[in-house]
Amino acid sequence: MTDPTRAGGADPGAGRDPARDPDRVTADLDVVQPFQLDRSSLRGRLVRLGPALDEILTRHAYPDPVALLLGETITLGAALASALKYEGIFTLQTKGDGPVSFTVADVTSVGDLRGYASFDADRLAAAVAAGAPGTLRDMLGTGYLAFTVDQGEHTERYQGIVELAGDSLDDAVRHYFRQSEQLATGIKVAVGRDSAGRWVGGAILVQALPEEGGARGEAARHSDVEEDDWRRAMVLLGSCTEAELLDARLPVNDLLFRLFHEEGARVYTRHALRAACRCSRGRVATALRSIPRGELEDLKVDGRVAVTCEFCKTEYGFDDAALDAVYAD
To answer: Which Gene Ontology BP annotations are present (predicted)?
Structure first.
């Protein structure tokens, strides 16, 4: 990490009213803010999403329960990815037998976000009509949570899978770390709409630093953490409200100072996030080329084959002339 400063102490906007400072609002959206708690030797990430999350969710016009769940998947995915050292793609995925069968969020090592969800509209409407409270089990039913890191064709892909557990997605993530990684991990996540109706998200992830002499960049096991330090940090994390996580008028460094100033909160260079899909006409053409040309005839509508990206909803159309070019290549 580079450029460390004390949270709240080196903020160039300190002392200004954030509600009257639109530049500060913009600067504190779609960012990951790494930090460290010097007193308790814990590291963390604070994520706040605004336009990027709103673009992804509104593009699909999901019902609110689905948008909330996917928004949490994307926000948590950004927080988890930022705690890793990788060059490629981190994926957080849920799959279940409930009204929402699937959510997925991709986060590239340069901060590009995308995500989508699959759901049964009739089952979802029935669950809402029956007064389902919207817990993880209500939405996803029984299934699993998966973490995947893909760094390219010449590297081994890492994947961790654990059953869905708890009432919320952050419960399921904590369960993953307890069962699969045995890492001391605290998480707080919130997704909602701002006063203008735009989707916003926020998350704080806290994990233990390695012991002296441990592998650099790896988190410590729970047994390595002083119990009193851990409990105190979790109490402070638990005091953070959803409103604080989602309020873009509250700068992220001010929020960290508010929560952890007694822990010696130290912030590092923040990273930007954005909504960006990796689909392209060339990728679609490559996929089509793997299908025998004759089988595409049944897929034509009005004389063309249309392929829509599940992530960004971009449609790529191929008439006979375009298909000739695809198969000629």
So the answer is: protein refolding
**Helix residue ranges per DSSP H, 114-182:** 121-129, 136-140, 169-176
| Contact predicate 57/75, CB 8 Å | no
Question: Mapping DSSP to helix (H, G, I), strand (E, B) and coil, where does residue 297 land?
Answer: helix
User: What's the predicted TM-score (pTM) here?
Assistant: 0.86
> Cα(254)–Cα(261) distance, rounded to whole angstroms?
10
Tokens of 279: 């689909």
Q: What are the structural domain ranges in the chain? A: 5-275, 281-328
CA separation for the pair 191, 207 (Å, rounded): 22
pLDDT tens by residue, 59-80:
999 999 999 999 999 999 999 9
Is there a contact between 68 and 42 (Cβ–Cβ < 8 Å)?
Answer: no
CATH 3.40.50.300 given to domain 281-328: no
Contacts of 166 (CB under 8 A, 6+ apart): 136, 172, 174, 175
CA distance 53 to 30: 8
- State the pLDDT at residue 215: 37
